[in-house]
Amino acid sequence: MSRTQMSARAKRLGMRLSFPATAPCASGETGVFELRFNDGEATMRKLEIADPQIMQVAIQQEIERSEESRYDHRLHGVLLVSSGYSCTEVGQLFGQAATTVQRWVQRFERGGFEGLREGERPGRPRTLDESQWARIEADLRKTPRDFGFEAGLWDGPVLSEHLRQCYGIELGVRQCQRLFRQMGFRLRKPRPQVAQSDPVRVATVKKLRRLAKRDDVELWSLDECHFQQHGSRCRMWLAPEVRDQVLMHAPTRKSVACFGAVSLSTGRFVWQVCPIFNAETFMSFLRRLLRHRRRGKRIVVVLDNAKYHHANMLKPMLHKYRRDLTLLFLPPYSPQLAPIERVWKLTRRLALHNRYFATLAEVLSAVEACFRHWIGPNEVLRILCCII
C-alpha cells in the first residue's frame, strides 16, 4: 500500500497519519510499514531488518538445508513470475541468476510441479578414451586417502592433482568439475550422521519457551567448536548411484578449539579459545560468562551432555553461584535443539568458506574478527537464535 493510500484510509478513520521526516520518499512508494499509535495520532514506520546482507546468507543456508525447502524456494520463484515479476527481478530478490529463474519456469512449463523437484540429469559426452574413463570412474569410487592424499572427499583440485600424478593428464580445476558431471556425479551437501533423538525427551524443549518469557532469567546457549585449518566445504561430488552420502570426518589436530555462548534474548556473544576441552577449561569459561550477567537476571545455560559438563569439580562453583547460574541440559543426541549451532554455521560461512589458511594463526584471526561483530547486543544473532 502506498503512502497516499494509507493517508486516505487514516483520514476515513478520523486519524491523522504522519511519516518520519528522516525517511522521506515519493508519495507512491510501497513497502512494509509498522503502525504506531501515540495520543490518537497514527505513525507509520517502514520495517527493516538489521544487517540484511548477513541475514540473507543465514536465510539462504536455511533454504539449502533440505531438498523439500529447495523445492518450495523454486515454487515461490515461479509464483512470483506468474504474478507479473520478471525473471531478473525474481533473481535479484532470491539472490539467484536470472537464467536460473528462467530454468525454473521452463521446467515448470514442461513438467508441472514435478519438474521443479530435484532429479537425475544426463551427463555430457565423454572426452577420454574408454580405458581411461573406466579407470578414473573406479578411482572416484574410492577415497582420496587410498591414493595418498590428505583430503577426505573428492573435489576439483584433488581430482586435478590425482590425474596429474597417476595419469600424466593436465586438467584444470574447472575442467575436472565438468568431468564429474560428464561421469554423472552430482554436487550435493554431505549429511552428517547423528544418532536418533528420543521424541519424549526432546519434548522437554518446551521448558525453554517458558523460561524465555520470565523477566528474571536470561537464557544462553553454550557449546564447543573446532575450526579446522582446511576451512569449510559446503558440497561434494557424488557418484551417480549414490543418493544420500554420509561424510565421515577424519580426526585432525590442526584446528582451533573454542567455547562459545550466545544470549537468546540480546544476541550478545561470548567466546574463549582454549587448548583442550575438559572440566578445567569449561569452568574457566563459565566464570567468564558470569561476568556478563545482568543485574536482576539469573543465567540459565542450555548445553549438551558432554562428559566434562557433568564433572564433579564443577559442583563447588555451581553451588557457590546457584542463585546466579543454572545449567540446563538438552536431551541426548539433540544438536538441532541448540541455537548456537546456527552461530557456528554462520561463522564458518562468513570467515572460513572457500579460503585457504597457511597457519592456524590465520584461522584464529579470521574467526575472532567475525566474533568481534557480536560482542554487544545485536539483531543478527538475536534473530538467528531467539526462542518464541
Automatic annotation (TrEMBL):
Coiled-coil blocks: none
Domain of life: Bacteria
Ranges for domain Tc1-like transposase DDE: 219-362
Xref: InterPro entries: Homeodomain-like_sf, RNaseH_sf, Tc1-like_DDE_dom, Transpos_IS630-like
NCBIfam families, alphabetized: transpos_IS630
Protein name: Transposase
Organism of provenance: Caballeronia udeis
